[in-house]
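Here is the promised in-class demo. Please do not try to memorize the tokens; focus on the logic of going from shape to residues.
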């Protein structure tokens, strides 16, 4: 089992499930946001994130979810049609009441009829990403297949194209900051240091004259909340706090006021 059950992000799992005929992603970038769209079985899936790879992974996860549930529903319906009528069980045998067992066969799906390997590989990947986001060091995982086999596909979220690990060997620390870190845009710098972390939209207040949006992000065991006059400014504020707390970055005034 370990020979094929390797962590794979949603984009890779979806591509393997759909095969070479899978549609291409349509990616559009607007400022600090990137939107990825893909059509699977005439259904459009889209997601927005801080970078292209993360947006594609989020859209792929939505498509994977729907494909899996559709497959389960289809298998359940096929089994229901093929199921033969079962003879009625008597209420009593020799005067002794017989306890009838509920027939829940239709609620179960045989694992051999379901693409479990794709779902399990993605589940492993998602678990490792969550652990890494909480500050744990995730080791490099290599396939035990023969050398003639194709190399494992790299993680889309971290952009490590051409490498054999699915996650970074070591979580970036302050020593990995670029020399001019204080001059970088906060959201761009945080995306570089923690590429797998997505912002959470926490909504806004109801004041139409002084509208204020809120955004949150969870990383390294901390939760940061930013506020601003727009969603972008709210994410920027959250990134400023995160970079200061986690990496000790004090941004230049031109960045803070820009």
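The designed amino acids, position by position:
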């Amino acid at each position: 089992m370990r020979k094929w059950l390797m962590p794979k992000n949603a984009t890779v799992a979806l591509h393997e499930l759909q095969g070479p005929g899978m549609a291409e992603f349509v990616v559009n970038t607007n400022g600090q946001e990137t939107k990825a769209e893909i059509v699977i079985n005439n259904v459009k899936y889209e997601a927005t994130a801080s970078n292209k790879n993360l947006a594609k992974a989020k859209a792929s996860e939505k498509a994977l979810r729907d494909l899996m549930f559709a497959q389960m529903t289809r298998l359940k319906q096929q089994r229901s049609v093929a199921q033969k009528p079962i003879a009625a069980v008597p209420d009593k045998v020799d005067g002794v009441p017989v306890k009838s067992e509920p027939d829940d066969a239709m609620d179960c799906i045989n694992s051999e009829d379901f693409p479990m390997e794709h779902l399990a590989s993605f589940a492993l990947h998602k678990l490792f990403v969550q652990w890494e986001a909480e500050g744990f060091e995730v080791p490099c995982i290599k396939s035990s297949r023969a050398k003639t086999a194709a190399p494992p596909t790299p993680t889309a979220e971290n952009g490590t194209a051409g490498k054999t690990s699915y996650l970074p060997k070591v979580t970036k620390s302050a020593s990995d900051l670029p020399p001019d870190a204080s001059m970088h845009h906060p959201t761009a710098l945080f995306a570089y240091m923690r590429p797998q972390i997505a912002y959470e939209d926490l909504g806004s207040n109801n004041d139409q004259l002084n509208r204020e949006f809120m955004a949150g992000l969870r990383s390294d065991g901390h939760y940061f909340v930013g506020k601003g006059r727009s969603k972008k400014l709210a994410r920027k504020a959250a990134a400023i706090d995160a970079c200061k707390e986690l990496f000790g970055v004090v941004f230049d005034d031109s960045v803070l006021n820009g």
